[in-house]
Amino acid sequence: MLISGFLVKPRSSKNGVSKTQSAGNQRHKSSLVGTSETTCTTTYPSSTNKNNEWLAGILDGEGSIQVSKKGYTFLEITMGLEDLRLLRYIQQQLECGSIKMRSGAKAYRYRLHNQLGMMKLINCINGNIRHSARLLQLHRVCQVLDNPLILPNTLSAQSNWFAGFFDAEGTIGIAMKHRLPQLSIRVNNQLLQDVESYRVVFGGNIYFSSSQNGYYQWSVQSRKDVIMMRHYFKSSTFRSHKSRRFFLISEYYSLYDLKAFQPSSMNHKAWLAFLDKWNKLMI
């Protein structure tokens, strides 16, 4: 069943009536953990909707799925001011939830706590969530909603999860290195296993930074790897403001080959105009 752009997987209980239990009763409760293949053969059809994969990537990067002390489930997604349109898209697709500016921060927060809305959400993302911390959160929520947890499949170059996680945690930038411009695409996360899938599928390298309490950064810088990511961009759906820079990659390499970045180049004005356009996409 489609709920706007997201594919919702129907669920059922033994008597055909959905059941919800309080968080207090879940303290020592065990629950079913299945794979997409094993669970889908019973009551859950396989989710192939790319919007579901993208949404799971967003939640893995910037979301929080929680159970309150009173036993209510809720979702929160926090994004910068530039990505208000992205949050509104999620709100429209799930058909509920609220968006408010965070006090004292240059960010907006989308919040969903309606029980029906949470059930729609879980049926969209169950089987697509893979971030270590988020999977634990999802499992707790699934227990409250009496919904079996579906473990994620192995990612491939066709998965739209990468696009969602990039929209949440990725960057694409240009820096000068040895007097030469260097374009790089990067994704950061505190846990190594949560960026390792990028290296496995798209190549590149993973670095560790001790700043900001330590984090891992996946990065591609070679033209071959960057072009591969551009091809992925063309076949996937990105919605963050920073992803618009993917449209300028071809122009960057054309100017680079002309050495337009050199002040003595007859094409230097074109390079400066390009940088102005590149930087404006981040405003």
TrEMBL record:
Ranges where the Homing endonuclease LAGLIDADG domain occurs: 55-144, 163-252
Region called Disordered, residue ranges: 1-45
Alphabetic keyword roster: Endonuclease, Hydrolase, Mitochondrion, Nuclease
Compositionally biased intervals (Polar residues): 13-25
Composition-biased stretches (Low complexity): 35-45
Pfam families the UniProt entry points to: LAGLIDADG_1 (PF00961)
InterPro entries: Homing_endonucl (IPR027434), LAGLIDADG_dom (IPR004860)
SUPFAM superfamilies: Homing endonucleases
One example GO MF annotation: endonuclease activity
Protein name as it appears in the record: DNA endonuclease
